[in-house]
Amino acid sequence: MPLDSIADRLEQVWLYLLLPLWLLAGFGDWCCHRVQRIERSAGLKESLMHLLMLAELGGGLLAALLLETNAAALLLLLAACLAHELTTWWDLVYADSKRHIPVAEQWVHSLQLVLPWAALATLAVLHWPQIMSPDWTLRWRPPPLPAGYLMALGTAGLLLAALPFAEEAWRCARARHGP
After folding, report:
1. Residues in Cβ contact with 91 at an 8 Å cutoff, skipping those fewer than 6 apart
2. What are phi and psi for residue 126, nearest 5 degrees?
């Protein structure tokens, strides 16, 4: 199989499998928190950590979707993954001290942890020459991804991650200050 064909398939895996699965895992995590009623245990502090993790990887995701994948963009993605990893550890230590984390939620967390790294590894393999001869200039992706794909992914991100976790923070803030 020609290398271009393999690269196209890897990009398809990244765009149409890893990213949607990551969004679904995030929604699954929100569902677990809703069932657990974290507003009555770990509360607003844990919810704010969730928003921080969403911002960390959301920024990285925007860079991956909109910027040319070169050494500078890969470094941004690495920084986003590392920040998310550290915030996740902080979140889990805090949450574990305040509430029980059921097996289903732990399984969802494992997806949330591994998928960003898998996406980064996929992009690094796809753009291996950038690892060997780095270009540190941030540029828009040539050619850009289709607008329809970006709109669909943005809508899915809004519905499966941004709005649910904003609702969680609102619910936790309301519980903190009473009805």
Report:
1. 46, 49, 50, 53
2. -60, -30
If one counts every other C-beta atom within 10 angstroms of the C-beta of residue 141, the result is: 14
Q: What's the token pair of residue 79? A: 């920084």
The two structure tokens encoding residue 68: 């040319």
C-beta pairs of 30-34 under 8 Å, 24+ apart in sequence: 30/161, 30/164, 30/165, 30/168, 32/102, 32/104, 32/105, 32/108, 33/105, 33/168, 34/168
| Cβ atoms of residues 22 and 157 within 8 Å | no
Grade residue 144 by pLDDT with cuts at 50, 70 and 90.
very high
DSSP at 161? I
How many Cβ atoms from other residues are within 10 Å of residue 65's Cβ?
16
87-119 pLDDT, tens digit each = 999 999 999 999 999 999 999 999 999 999 999
